[in-house]
Amino acid sequence: MNPLKKAARWLNDRSGFTEMLKPLLDHPVPPGSKWAYVFGSATLFCFVLQVATGVGLALLYQPSSQEAFQSLQYITYKASLGKTLRGIHYFGASGMIVMVGLHMLRTYITAAYKYPREMSWISGVVLLLLTVGMGFTGQLLRWDDNGVWSAVVAAEQMGRIPLIGKSLARLLLGGDTLGGQSLSRFFSYHVFLIPALLFVFTGFHLWLVMRNGISEPPKAGQLVDPRTYRQWYKNMLRNSGVPFWPYAAWRDALFGSLIIMAIVVLAVVFGPPALTKPPDPSNVITTPQPDWYLLWIYALFALMPAKIESYVMFFGPLLLFFLLFALPFVSNKGERSPIKRPWAIVGSCFVVIVVVSLLFVGKNANWSPNFNAKALTKVSIPATDSLALSGSVLFQQKACLYCHSINNEGGKVGPDLTHVANRLSEEQITIRIANGAKNMPAYGSSLSNDELKKLVAFLKTRN
């Protein structure tokens, strides 16, 4: 006998692998479970990819505030295949969020959350939240300006929650202020806590699929009756069910493999998101921009009137979570076909259009700081004296350029400073920088007198 076959037979005899896998592979599924059912397994493919690439990154990443940024630079620019590994991990997170979103959308449109699969929906909502949590905590681990201040903004939002807000913010950051303990805490969230919960709830979700079966494709007029559904489903599988392998599994394997290949191609072509610069606690002018899957929330809060922001920030998530968790309890029987439930399609389209629109607005709106702003050209720096020239350098180093433009170079969040000297005196410019203004923090405590003089000298040349 072939030595490999002999070893495999010995391993199976001692471990019972086939006894464990055979029921899974032979598990009958409803006929007609085709391409619309592949998003759940594709999410699992992405999760396995995230675990594999996450382990690779963790071998090189240094979770300390002094070395985290440098270790990511080493991974990206010096380690063999490090840039590709970071890219796969980044696009894998995006792929996982897209797939879990499509899976939940398909579940909602086909009402697969109805009896007896209410717990499958609830565990799916938990998995969605954990997936988003993985993305958010991973952003801070880059330990650059953008990631660090995104965590600060999240903590400030939590702090607005009545009674428990400050405690939640402390739990998130590991203290009253952002520091090395925050990085250690986010590393624990991202590498240990959330993945462990993902493993638990994924296992629970799959066990529920085995126990209650895959929902059959809905047919108009075929109602779900909790009193008779289980027996009807059992008879349907006995008469027309097909084994999961190979009749249904091949689509899952093919689609999941294509998604992984697409993620790898994106990682090779585009690479990981660029690191901005090491975090500077004294630099309070940074306006963070989260990764794209959280950008729509950022856009929503930025567009709404400031006086209702706190109320929406507190009641909005509560209402959303209540609706998601309550859905299978208020509608667990009756019609499943989307043809007979047009409001489900309209509602789904509305949510998709709103989220996509907010993503577009959040990406392109003028109130988004331009973190990719290039250094001012010589045309925008007419100064000849050394003080003003030094101020032009500070204008970029202190990230003024992210929010203000000069000759259309820079961000659009703040006022255009091309001719600022024509409308503000030297004293007014100094007061504005030191004390701040609407939507502009005060710089008085983060700039030395010498730096302030240089900046004012540069801006005085703008007339």
Task: Lay out the secondary structure.
Blueprint: H1 3-15, H2 17-26, E1 28-29, H3 39-58, H4 68-77, H5 82-109, H6 118-140, H7 145-159, H8 165-173, H9 180-212, H10 229-240, E2 242-243, H11 244-270, H12 292-303, H13 306-330, H14 342-364, H15 386-397, H16 400-403, E3 405-406, E4 409-410, H17 420-423, H18 426-435, H19 449-460
Antiparallel strand pairs: 1-2, 3-4
Summary tags:
single chain; 463 residues; mainly alpha; Cytochrome Bc1 Complex, Chain C; Cytochrome Bc1 Complex, Chain D, domain 2; two-stranded antiparallel ribbon
Structural notes for this entry:
It is built from 19 helices and 4 strands. By secondary structure, it is mainly α. The chain folds into 2 domains: 337 residues, Cytochrome Bc1 Complex, Chain C (Up-down Bundle); 76 residues, Cytochrome c-like domain (Cytochrome Bc1 Complex, Chain D, domain 2), CATH 1.10.760.10. Strand 3 and strand 4 form a beta hairpin. The mean pLDDT is 86. InterPro entries: Cyt_b/b6_C (IPR005798), Cyt_b/b6_C_sf (IPR036150), Cyt_b/b6_N (IPR005797), Cyt_c-like_dom (IPR009056), Cyt_c-like_dom_sf (IPR036909), Cytb/b6-like_sf (IPR027387), Di-haem_cyt_TM (IPR016174).
The tally of helices reads: 19
The overall pLDDT, averaged over residues, is 86
Strand order across the biggest sheet?
1-2
Helical residue percent? 55-70%
InterPro entries: Cyt_b/b6_C, Cyt_b/b6_C_sf, Cyt_b/b6_N, Cyt_c-like_dom, Cyt_c-like_dom_sf, Cytb/b6-like_sf, Di-haem_cyt_TM
GO biological process, one term: respiratory electron transport chain
Subcellular location: Membrane
Protein name: C-type cytochrome
